[in-house]
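Just wondering, can you check both lines?
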Amino acid sequence: MDRAEPFATALTALREAVAERIYPPGARLKVQGIASGLRLSPTPVREALSRLAGEGLVEDRRGEGYFTWRLSPPDVAELLDLHLAVLLAALSRPGPPPAASASASLDAALGDGGDALAPVNWSRRLFAQVLRERAGRVLVGVQAQVDARLRPVRRIEPQVLENLAAEARLLAAAYEGGAPRRLAAELRRFHARRRRLAVVFARQLQGEDIDEI
């Protein structure tokens, strides 16, 4: 068996498990147990956890092991601030006209409205596209890491925020307009809306009842 195959299997499985919040916040990621569940040896699991720690997706506590992050409200706010800063840095650079109809791609993503995460996933793709069009490898890499760290937050947006589809349509219209200032203004509103609810997001991620906040 190719040595890279067990590593890729472990990396993909762990990346998805962290994003889907399979493990509770602050949980220790036990190498032996994970390896047994994936029917792998501990080595590729340990290597995958090391990679994820390098990407900032799990916490490496030296001498203790690997743990899932427990995002605090300031953590959520800082990640949102960094995400916005990277996007604004990209928009400050010259770029090509919009590559395709953002509204059409959004309509296709929304479909019949049955997928609550459709506008969330669409906006993630739009942000990545903006970076690819305007930024270099460094900013693209930073955005990918921040997006991965924010993924658990973004996945619970339908539980916390309303009118996500309407918000996505504003982003699509701003992108299609080709005016960086207009898109920058929409991005600031997008992030400010979430930043105001950093406490709600953090508590929801920790399993607390947001109705009691």
About this structure: Strands lie at 28-29, 58-61, 65-68. Residues 209-213 have pLDDT under 50 and may be disordered. Residues 4-68 form a domain with the Arc Repressor Mutant, subunit A fold (CATH 1.10.10.10).
